[in-house]
Amino acid sequence: MKILTAAQMREIDRIAIEELGIPGPILMENAGLQVTAILRNELGLESWMKVVVVAGRGNNGGDGLVVARHLHNQGVDCQVLLVGSQAEVKGDAALNLQIASRIGVPIIEIRDEAGWKKARKVLGQTPIIVDALFGTGLSSPLEGLYARVVQDINHSGAFVLSVDIPSGLSSDTFELIGPCVRADLTVALGAPKVAHLFPPAEEYVGELVVADISLPPFLFERPGLNLELVELESLVPYFQPRRRDTHKGSYGHLLVIAGSRGKTGAAAMAGRAALKMGAGLVTVATAASCLPIVARSMPELMTEPLPETDSGSISEEALERAMELVKGKDALLIGPGLSTHPSTAAFGLKLLAGLKNYRNPVVVDADGLNIVATSPEVLSSLPGKTILTPHPGEFSRLCGLSTAEILRKRLEIVPEFARKHKLHLVLKGYRTLIGSPEGKVMVNPTGNPGMASGGTGDVLAGLLASEAMQVKDILQAAVNAVFIHGLSGDLAAEKVGEKSLTATDLIKFLPAAIRFLTSGGEDDSEIS
């Protein structure tokens, strides 16, 4: 599902109206009908209930007027507080204002703060307010009368449904630009917008429902619409039962180079996650003294001892053996628990530099990323099927920007970085972003705060490397792994709670997550 800016949505509307011949009033009618249906279905709206529509003078207000008309026709006690004069309402909104007025919908004009002070008492007498004051085109903060209206809506105690976007938010940014309605439910028209999905703006959206207003689907496939929300349905084909005539070689042999003294768990969890994600074979190459611990973690894991430093990390002397191991493998994961010991860092940089012509997937995670950050020039020599998996702090070291700037501008920085270095980038965190070399950015909807604990990134790295061997499209493989990682966390949180959730719980609940996807979301059975 595409995530759009205000300009992109306007262009889609323009094409629909001017080039395809779909009249604007029909799109407005469809929008109002969808909101009315959601009021009925989501809130159980009955004819005896009262509803107030707070409408502006533009198209968002026009959508609200359509809602008011249909509620009025259905016997609901609904009135419109129009912030502005009826003479100021133009275009399609004016048409719907005229119709609503003629059929008897009560419409009260609010021309100034004195008028609002008189009319606002009705907000405290209604259980439901429909916010149709401003739509997605807003780019400056609300002031004066409009700010007062928003404030009183928020203090009303009513259930608030916002049409398209809570009034006061700008659809093009997740930053707050000024006073805005705090909605309980928002009905996005046609497609979600940036503000709907990322905090702090998201916190004002409430529950989000995306309404189909009958815009042709091909309009959302136009070039340049590169931001997309991952939907469960798109993953289902990749989690279907395996063909009968396959064997372990059909699902790849992964090499994991990871672990050091005190960080053997990272290597073990990455390897275990890769096997549980369906890898045919997994070999964990680690410092020789760490091998017994890793080997005991899961009998199905194969292990390979590598020369080590005095501190128990992989030594630069391991390079030749590691290069031999890589040659016979279908993918490489390097980094979890590796350490940044100078000898280990030299090993990692030389290994990555030697992979320039490697044709199989490479996942660089954790300390692998920290090592790369010391010599960023190695980025230009990474193989074409490389996936980097930084959290914001690691990404800060990679690109030289502050963590705060990365978080504020991540929707621009992620595709720019992925394009520049011709690789795939997974920026971990709330709403993990998956960027491709083509500039496409996928937004992951799964996961929860319980996953903010040590080791969850190691599990994700194993899932990514495993899936990258099994799905030829690297972007799709990354999307699959990130989505199911979060879904496993969500299933685990339901069972053990967010506070008690650990990385190994993600591996435990991975089979349930896979079953859930295989069934298209219909299998909600739990693991004890």
Brief overview, please?
By secondary structure, the protein is α/β, with parallel strands linked by helices. The chain has helices at residues 6-19, 24-43, 59-73, 91-102, 113-119, 144-154, 194-197, 232-235, 264-276, 291-297, 319-327, 342-353, 367-374, 392-399, 403-408, 410-421, 456-470, 474-496, 503-508, 510-518; strands at residues 50-55, 77-83, 107-110, 128-132, 159-163, 185-189, 207-211, 227-229, 253-257, 281-287, 302-306, 331-334, 362-364, 386-388, 424-427, 433-435, 441-443.
Describe the structure.
Helix content is 41%, strand content 15%. The protein is elongated. With 528 residues, it is α/β, with parallel strands linked by helices. A 10-stranded mixed beta sheet has the order 8-17-16-15-14-13-12-9-10-11, sandwiched between helices. Strands 3-2-1-4-5-6-7 form a 7-stranded parallel beta sheet, with helices on both faces. It has helices spanning 6-19, 24-43, 59-73, 91-102, 113-119, 144-154, 194-197, 232-235, 264-276, 291-297, 319-327, 342-353, 367-374, 392-399, 403-408, 410-421, 456-470, 474-496, 503-508, 510-518, and strands at 50-55, 77-83, 107-110, 128-132, 159-163, 185-189, 207-211, 227-229, 253-257, 281-287, 302-306, 331-334, 362-364, 386-388, 424-427, 433-435, 441-443.
Layout of helices and strands:
Blueprint: H1 6-19, H2 24-43, E1 50-55, H3 59-73, E2 77-83, H4 91-102, E3 107-110, H5 113-119, E4 128-132, H6 144-154, E5 159-163, E6 185-189, H7 194-197, E7 207-211, E8 227-229, H8 232-235, E9 253-257, H9 264-276, E10 281-287, H10 291-297, E11 302-306, H11 319-327, E12 331-334, H12 342-353, E13 362-364, H13 367-374, E14 386-388, H14 392-399, H15 403-408, H16 410-421, E15 424-427, E16 433-435, E17 441-443, H17 456-470, H18 474-496, H19 503-508, H20 510-518
Parallel strand pairs: 1-2, 1-4, 2-3, 4-5, 5-6, 6-7, 8-17, 9-10, 9-12, 10-11, 12-13, 13-14, 14-15
Antiparallel strand pairs: 15-16, 16-17
